Amino acid sequence: MPNQTQDSSWLENLKRKAQDLFAEESTVVDGIRSGFVDRAIVFIDLVGSTSFKIEHRENPENWILIIRQFSKLVSAAVQISHGNVVKFIGDEVMASFEKAEHAGNFLVHVREIEEALHSVTGFATAIKITADFGPVYELRFEGHEAPDPQGIVVDRCAGISKYGVPGEVLASAFFAEATWSLDWYEVGEVEVHGVGNVAVSQLGGSTADLEPRVAISRKEYASLKKERELMRAELARLDPGSVTSCG
């Protein structure tokens, strides 16, 4: 257990650091208020990575290599399109573009990126992409080269990304309006927690399923499954042909 002197020194250092930070607040606040800029935010998610990890649990180098190759190739594609990789979140890449049209140019090459991944990894690799556009504050962290966009647009984009499926590009109406020359289709609205209803468009078609996702625990799922099986058994007892006809 640390002694009294060490604890006291650590606490005093922290207090001095806090005082320095608080002293900066008046000048920092003015800079924040005037520092918001419009940015296109894009989330690129590798599909099926969890099942791939389970399938190759005895050879973890396989899935680590896939994620490594995915991250490197997507980063290169972002940079070619004049964007910046903001962060890596597991098997997801977050990118930022100063101009919406640059992000749009990245989005139209989804198929080519998937094909390039397949040629490199040897596995059929699918990605899903979500884009948004709006004001953010680019917050800089020590030791982190790229500024980290902060704003509702990031939360909105993350919320929409939950509805993406392999090969689809979804975007908010704000991004679709900013890249109006692309082939956007309105597919409905989704409710994003803390943001509200968000109009969503899909690039090149209208196949997206925007039905609300309902999360339940494993215990609830098991209970519902058992209840369904009992109902099917009772239905079969009353009308043997009904279960087959229901599928």
UniProtKB/TrEMBL annotation:
Gene Ontology molecular functions: adenylate cyclase activity
Superkingdom of this protein's organism: Bacteria
Domain Guanylate cyclase: 40-177
Protein name: Adenylate cyclase, class 3
Organism encoding this protein: Desulfonatronum thiosulfatophilum
Annotated GO biological process: cyclic nucleotide biosynthetic process; intracellular signal transduction
Matches recorded under InterPro entries: A/G_cyclase, Nucleotide_cyclase
